[in-house]
Write a structure and sequence with these properties.
Layout: H1 2-13, H2 24-41, H3 57-64, E1 71-79, E2 88-95, E3 98-106, H4 109-124, H5 160-164, E4 179-183, H6 204-207, E5 209-212, H7 216-233, E6 251-256, H8 268-281, E7 287-291, H9 296-302, E8 308-312, E9 315-316, E10 327-329, E11 338-340, H10 341-345, E12 354-358, E13 365-368, E14 371-374, H11 375-381, E15 386-390, H12 399-412, H13 419-432, H14 437-440, E16 443-446
Parallel strand pairs: 1-4, 4-5, 6-7, 6-8, 8-12, 12-15
Antiparallel strand pairs: 1-2, 2-3, 9-10, 10-11, 13-14, 15-16
Helix pairs in contact: 8-12, 12-13
Length: about 450
């Protein structure tokens, strides 16, 4: 498996000089246009603060200088074209030093989407296609997997070499970066960046943490609100002190009584998972909905106003109908057994600091020029600050240890929270449990680091 990951960086390095550059204002306006379209697709309007008129490239660079550690922003922008088969794609890398990489080249969007899907299947070790058709609801559940499997895909269906030439700047531009904020397009957010390897054999996660930002605008707005946000949470950010998280009123969803046991088998690992992390999250205000009590009705009654939402259950992604057929599986109530993206995005989760979607495929969905439409963005639209989600069907037997390491690292605190906490958890998991990327590279964060 690793030879394909090594090839990714080698091929990108061979790109050579820039074929074209695109100015910031053009890129920003394209993002604004794509976000307009994305919000319309979700039945909503774009917030007024998503506007390019008051920002430029210096705004981005000055924002990065606020971080003590080296943080970079990698901006992906599909460029307009009348011919879908010959569209262009722009990659821009911002650091504290300025714009260090700005490159555009012709792509085939359909091919890129397909290549990313196949690349993910190689890393996950499952070889299933998620983007070519709706995930089948009749497929038998694979052992040890928290979600449905999809139709096997032949390697010849996709030209992975096309992906390998387009996805990252040459690794020389990524040296000394502590955290990479990725502003994606199409299904780029579903790439397991953690498992990409450098020419020295180390994974990206060995060198830096990364996060998927909802958009360029959220990065700016959230950073402007961070000091007030920290004050409201009782967190510390000044004087070099570590950012610490204390959970006051978590809501935990643990292994519901599923509506169809053959399709959604019991997940014993989720019970072990909650037991392992209980010392970090349980207090007098913690609510745990388990088994028959984990109904959609009970979840919706208890979900708003929580600082931590933790779902340890099955998840399903649908690339054709991401709002109504991408869902979290809850306790058996017939047709009301599923918490959909459409329902989630209408909630008020403005007080939610962290959502953990310890279920399968929660980071997947319908690709759009503005990013992925699915469960993760639904929680973000509802107001949640940070969402930990998954890129494929995760393993029930291995996930509890990784989540334990993650919450232990969160309790320690530090900079670039909670993203660095996940990185440290993965590094420990690689050393103590398994170095195979299929067990740990599926986990990704959606949000903006502190």
């Amino acid at each position: 498996m690793s030879k394909y990951i090594v090839l990714l960086f080698l091929c990108v390095i061979s790109i050579g000089s820039f074929s074209q550059t695109t100015d910031f204002q053009t890129l920003c306006e394209l993002h604004q246009k794509n976000l307009d379209s994305l919000h319309i697709s979700r039945g909503a309007s774009r917030p007024e603060w998503m506007d390019c008129k008051d920002i430029d490239s210096n705004t981005i660079i000055n924002l990065l200088k606020r971080y003590k550690r080296n943080v970079a922003i990698l901006l992906y922008t599909p460029l307009d074209s009348k011919n879908r088969k010959s569209d262009s794609f722009n990659l821009t890398l911002y650091t504290k030093k300025g714009i260090v990489f700005n490159h555009s080249e012709a792509i085939n969007k359909d091919q890129l989407i397909s290549d990313i899907t196949l690349f993910n299947s190689r890393i996950s070790g499952q070889f299933f296609a998620y983007s070519d058709s709706k995930i089948p609801s009749t497929e038998k559940q694979e052992e040890d997997i928290r979600g449905l499997v999809a139709v096997p895909v032949e390697e010849s269906q996709s030209n992975v070499s096309y992906l390998l030439q387009t996805i990252l700047p040459p690794e020389e531009y990524l040296k000394d970066i502590d955290h990479l904020i990725i502003v994606p397009s199409l299904n780029i957010a579903t790439i397991p960046f953690s498992a990409l390897q450098f020419s020295d054999g180390e994974y990206l996660i060995d060198k830096m943490s990364y996060s998927i930002a909802p958009s360029l605008f959220e990065i700016l707005v959230i950073n402007e609100q961070i000091n007030e946000h920290f004050s409201n949470l009782g967190l510390k950010r000044k004087g070099g002190e570590k950012n610490r998280f204390s959970w006051y009123n978590p809501l935990i969803i643990e292994n519901p009584t599923y509506p169809n046991p053959e399709k959604y088998p019991n997940l014993e690992g989720t019970e072990k998972e909650i037991e392992l992390i209980s010392s970090f999250i349980k207090n007098d205000k913690t609510t745990i909905l388990k088994g028959k009590k984990a109904t959609t009705e009970n979840v919706l009654k208890n979900i708003e106003g929580r600082d931590l939402l933790y779902f340890a259950t099955h998840g399903v992604a649908d690339v054709r109908n991401a709002l109504d057929s991408s869902f979290i599986v809850l306790a058996d109530q017939g047709e009301n057994s599923y918490l959909t993206s459409r329902t989630i995005q209408k909630l008020d989760l403005s007080k939610t600091e962290l959502v953990v979607l310890s279920a399968c495929q929660t980071g997947l969905g319908q690709e759009h020029e503005g990013g992925i439409i699915g469960l993760t963005r639904a929680f973000q639209i509802a107001g949640a600050k940070n969402i930990l989600s998954t890129l494929w069907s995760i393993y029930d037997s291995k996930t509890p240890e990784l989540m334990y390491y993650f919450f232990e690292e969160m309790e320690k605190g530090g900079e670039l929270m909670p993203y660095e906490a996940l990185r440290q958890a993965i590094l420990r998991f690689k050393k103590e449990v398994s170095g195979e990327p299929r067990y740990w590279a599926a986990f990704m964060f959606f949000g903006v680091p502190y």
